Amino acid sequence: ETSLKVTGIDFLKSQNSQQHHTDGYNIKNLVVRRGQPFQVLVRLNRERRAADKLSLRFGIGENPMKNRGSLLSLKPEREDLDGWKISVVKKDGKEYLLSVTSAPNAPVGKYNVHVKTGSNIYKPENGVIYLLFNPWCEDDVVYMANEAQKKEYVLNDTGYIYVGSAYSIYDRPWNFGQFEEFILDACMYLLDKSKLSLTERRDPASVSRAMSALVNANDDSGVVLGNWSGNYAGGTAPMDWIGSVTILQKYYKTKKPVCFGQCWVFAGVLNTVMRCLGVPSRCVSNFDSAHDTDENLTVDIYLNEKGEKMNISMDSVWNFHVWNDVWMKRTDVPSGFDGWQAIDSTPQEQSQGRFQCGPCSVKAVREGDVYLPYDSKFVYAEVNADRVYWLVKKVNGKDKYFKIATQTQDIGKKISTKAVGQNRREDITREYKYPEGSKEERMSMQRAYSFIRPLRLTPRSGYASSMQTLGGNVQPLALSEPATKTGLHLKITNTEPLHPGNPLEIAITVKVSAPGNWTIDLTGSSQLQYYTGKVQANLGTTKETINLEGPSEMAIPLKIAPDMYMKTLSSVEDEVLILVTAIAEVRETNDKLTQETSMRFQYPPITVEMPETAKLYNDFTCAFIFKNKLNVTLENCKLLVEGLGLFNMTTFDQGDIMPGRIMKSEIICTPTRLGERKIVAKLISNQIKGISTEKGIIIT
């Protein structure tokens, strides 16, 4: 009698991937999520008898072994093994339809599937199954109950990253592209490279921490090399990316870090990786974000006598910083800290010897429980530090430091992410912190301080030896803004649109609310700065002495001619912001106040023209139109466009676009995927880096 042999196996990809929400992945293999049944059809050379042995074997890793738990042998008669289940759905002569359910805590990764009958082993082609986290499974720690949230945080392959400044936030469209070709394989390569144990691969906290380390190139030749120098020769400038797909595909092909990234690039790529692996994930932008290097919850800002910010502090306040939140139950910390966890792949500070950050419970940040793993003190400081201003004056040829103000409510504003199912910004500040000045905020802050134990407040640049001593102990919990005797208040606004090539017209409004006659010395300065707070150029200062009969206010204009800033604007490869700093001092009372505002330049739009709907595999034309409404020629213009499921990333060289000129480019799109697809376009030139737009189309 012939021995029992398998003649074929069908992984029923189309029905399984629809049920597992994995039909988007552009890959030949079967992709399934853990803890949920999938079906496999096994064809035999003859009918199976009671004595015939048959088992489905799932192996993970280089050398799968049963005793290490990396090889599972599932027999239809013995239903349960290590949380995995197998059963016969129906038997039809020589065909067996089997149902397999992996454990809801199974290690994620690539499994080799073989069928063993007696001493015969059948190895199917495309016999590798990809197993992912499952937010649809109640027993998986990444379970997310809300369907619309899963659609956004797991399945949406496009989105926005919010950048700019708290004064002028704008959305940068970003293609996550977690379903595109080679992206899943790139994520599997990262999992292997992470050297996580099988046990760690079960746990999204370990996986997300490892991915936060691997998305930056520091210490493990990971995906993206960070560069904030302003010189991007030999790579792509961080402003020139419009999505993660090109980056991850290039990394997977070369296995070498891709040049270059800044925080939104790291966050965009990490978001792609986490969504691809099945962990709900969102990009989070924090405005006026503190980078507090010594975790004392204060960031020192130094101003010279003209009121200009100096580049001497190790601490910094970034106009914005972008990280990610991932959704999970935390099994490694006390209960009450489930839900969103912050992870950050921008290489800022080392954690346990590597550039990695998180997962840190967002609830722990809000409650001040900064003793919990991982990196909660650092994340807490990013959204809660105080900003301390020091005036640096020359006294007998030596720098002396005078403290002019402490701002307690400035850091961690307008924390933003894309809203679920809508193309708009959602403010999630309340998830990270209680309302400023509330009782809960005070208690949370006292709690955090008890774990951080702030050192006494002194500036800590290399120049601290010539320190002026600043009186006794500083009360850390001054939660309200310093009250002044005159009710002095400063506000900075732009009075005309900030178009490159035009004068920058800014007003500093000085207000006093106390009755009386007041003499106020006002210093105002304007600078160009990177989003990291680093100053690039000084544009001009104004010093005025004004008399105010309180209560009243007065606006002092600050006007900067185009030739003061256009040269710098054209020579940098980053988007720069306009920083305006004001210092006011009331002579009669010695009240001092300082205020700073960062503003972004405003640009003419790109228009996208295409039909509202199109049919699968039917070509249509998409046109991009841009009119240069500025007073300056835009040199070396490049238009970058990408449409996931429509066309690959394409670059058009447009040369120079003179004022008033119109540029038009067209591309033929071939829809290969159904549903809403998005086209993203970005225009970069020597003068301007930040013009981008996106438009959706429904494919039927």
Can you describe what's shown?
The protein is of the alpha+beta class. It folds into four domains: 6-132, Sandwich (Immunoglobulin-like); 147-451, Transglutaminase-like (Coagulation Factor XIII, Chain A, domain 2, Alpha-Beta Complex), CATH 3.90.260; 488-600, Immunoglobulins (Immunoglobulin-like, Sandwich); 606-699, Immunoglobulin-like. It is built from twelve helices and 37 strands. The strands form nine sheets. Strands 2, 4, 5, 9, 10 and 11 form a six-stranded mixed beta sheet that branches. Strands 20-19-18-16-23-24 form a six-stranded antiparallel beta sheet, with helices on both faces. Helix 3 (183-193) packs across helix 6. It is elongated and about 110 Å long. 45% of the residues are buried. Mean pLDDT is 93; it is low at 455-481.
Mean pLDDT: 93
Largest sheet: 6 strands, mixed
Q: Helicity, in percent? A: 10-25%
Give a count of the beta strands, DSSP E runs of length 2 or more: 37
By CATH, the superfamily of the largest domain comes out as Transglutaminase-like
What's a quick, concise take on this entry?
By secondary structure, the chain is an alpha+beta fold. The active site is at residues 263, 321, 344.
Please write out the topology.
Blueprint: E1 6-10, H1 13-19, E2 30-33, E3 37-44, E4 54-60, E5 71-74, E6 80-81, E7 84-92, E8 95-101, E9 109-117, E10 120-122, E11 128-132, H2 147-155, E12 158-164, E13 169-175, H3 183-193, H4 198-201, H5 204-214, E14 224-226, H6 245-254, E15 258-261, H7 263-277, E16 281-291, E17 298-303, E18 316-328, E19 339-343, E20 360-361, H8 362-367, H9 376-384, E21 386-395, E22 398-407, E23 413-418, E24 425-427, H10 429-432, H11 439-452, E25 489-494, E26 504-529, E27 535-560, H12 562-571, E28 577-586, E29 592-599, E30 606-609, E31 613-614, E32 620-627, E33 634-643, E34 647-657, E35 662-669, E36 675-684, E37 691-699
Parallel strand pairs: 2-11, 14-15, 17-21, 31-37
Antiparallel strand pairs: 1-3, 3-8, 4-5, 4-9, 6-7, 7-8, 9-10, 9-11, 12-13, 16-18, 16-23, 18-19, 19-20, 21-22, 23-24, 25-26, 26-27, 26-28, 28-29, 30-32, 32-35, 33-34, 33-36, 36-37
Helix pairs in contact: 3-6
Family: Belongs to the transglutaminase superfamily. Transglutaminase family.
EC number: 2.3.2.13
Organism: Pycnonotus jocosus
